[in-house]
Amino acid sequence: MKVGLYLFENDCRLSDNPALTTLASQVDTLICIYLPTVNLWTARKAQCSPSFTVECYRNQTLNALHQSLASQQQKLYLLRDTAQLKALTEIIHTQQVTHIGRAVHPGFDEQKLWLKLQDNFPHIQYISAYSNTLFEPDSLPISVSELPPSFTPFRKTVEEIEPKLPIATPQLPPRPNRVSDLAEFKANSSYSIKVAAGEAQAQQQLQQYFQTDAALTYKETRNALFGEHFSTRFSPILAYGAISPRQIKQALTQFEQQRGANESTYWIWFELLWREYFHWYALKHQHTLFSFSGVKAKTPKTSFYPERFLKWCQGRTPNALVNAIMHELTKTGWISNRARQIAASYFVNELQLDWRYGAAFFEQHLIDYDVAANWGNWQYIAGVGADPRGGRHFNITKQQALFDPDGEYIKLWQGEATPQLDSQDHVGWPLEDN
Ligand SMILES: Cc1cc2nc3c(=O)[nH]c(=O)nc-3n(C[C@H](O)[C@H](O)[C@H](O)COP(=O)(O)OP(=O)(O)OC[C@H]3O[C@@H](n4cnc5c(N)ncnc54)[C@H](O)[C@@H]3O)c2cc1C
């Protein structure tokens, strides 16, 4: 009897999921488990746990996955213990697991867990696949270790390569008879936000986006701070893997065939390549994605200012635009790319804080949190990553004149400036008020 265990992480879908498809074809019974992302740096150093909005969005995504599985008489289970290796070990023993599958994850801790499983249970067959990237290492002319230090040479190397076509939803084997010791996922119906979540809604969002003309003007609108369809908003469904980047590329190509390709449609591809770059970057740089000097032997100039950090988190800095951005982030779990750049640049340059705490705060609050894109972009802005210019310092006054000239965004998110940056008040550490 071959017993399969599938570990869903950032691939919460059944279609275009090569590891799941391969595992399903090789086993007699199948157990599906969701493994939450763990970033030990964030958990230990910044003492962050996901915000309520992030919990809601995850709950919606898992509920959708649970329902997709139910349509095939399957169920989604959770680990009983937060110590993932211990909990998995127990399941492997009690269920007599013979095969384990998962999508390749760019996160260092997630990779460590996978390697540890292989060390501890060498008799098990392991099946993994690149489900959340456009390409696989075999289809690239360079290896992960040869990834260029900046985006442009990477883009030039890969942009003409066609990703594989997405694959169909597999027929899943049944659950084993004895699963009473597993913790079944139970949706909490009071946890809900109005953002497309899960595979069916992701496909709907994809279709709806390409039914509009938005893709034809994406390049001109993508830097906006707010409004409808100024960017694709695919990031939350991509982050949880409710959709694959290959499915998006396929829809984009179809759109270009029907409506015509232009610089804007190319730019959506360009941004998907940025995402791709950071995924390979995280795989290459491993734990240095989280280190203070990043991938450069350069130590940023920062000091320890708990009060500044608290004010940035709460949107109470002397800058109204930054405050509005932080309010939108903490209330909705999503902000535009330009807003992320402004908030991060202000954090690093004006507040002179350690970039990793900013990245950890984003991790805690973004519904589209993606380990590679988040920490890679923060490194870029802090000048310890992939930026060939050595970091970005946005002139916030100019940004405001360009992207919020009438102060509409600031008004919408109540971004009043507070005059003083540093007071004499004592702010304890770690912060308790977040
Ligand atoms: C400091 C900082 C932190 C960030 N953290 C995250 C994160 O945790 N998760 C995340 O998905 N993106 C992150 N980004 C990248 C980018 O801001 C978001 O992907 C984008 O704003 C999401 O909105 P969208 O889907 O409408 O993007 P669109 O503009 O429509 O782009 C389409 C897709 O391309 C990808 N993409 C676009 N820009 C980038 C980029 N700069 N880097 C990597 N991928 C990109 C995303 O998958 C996005 O969904 C971060 C950027 C910065 C500056």
UniProtKB/TrEMBL annotation:
Swiss-Prot/TrEMBL keywords: Chromophore, FAD, Flavoprotein
Sequence ranges assigned to domain Photolyase/cryptochrome alpha/beta in this UniProt record: 2-134
PROSITE patterns assigned to the protein according to its UniProt record, in alphabetical order: PHR_CRY_ALPHA_BETA
Domain of life, source organism: Bacteria
Cofactor note: Binds 1 5,10-methenyltetrahydrofolate (MTHF) per subunit.
Cofactor: (6R)-5,10-methylene-5,6,7,8-tetrahydrofolate; FAD
Xref: InterPro entries: Cry_DASH, Crypto/Photolyase_FAD-like_sf, Crypto/Photolyase_N_sf, Cryptochr/Photolyase_FAD-bd, Cryptochrome/DNA_photolyase_1, DNA_photolyase_N, Rossmann-like_a/b/a_fold
Keyword Flavoprotein: yes
Function in brief: May have a photoreceptor function.
NCBIfam families in UniProt: crypto_DASH
Family in the record: Belongs to the DNA photolyase class-1 family.
Identification of the protein by name: Cryptochrome DASH
Organism: Pseudoalteromonas piscicida
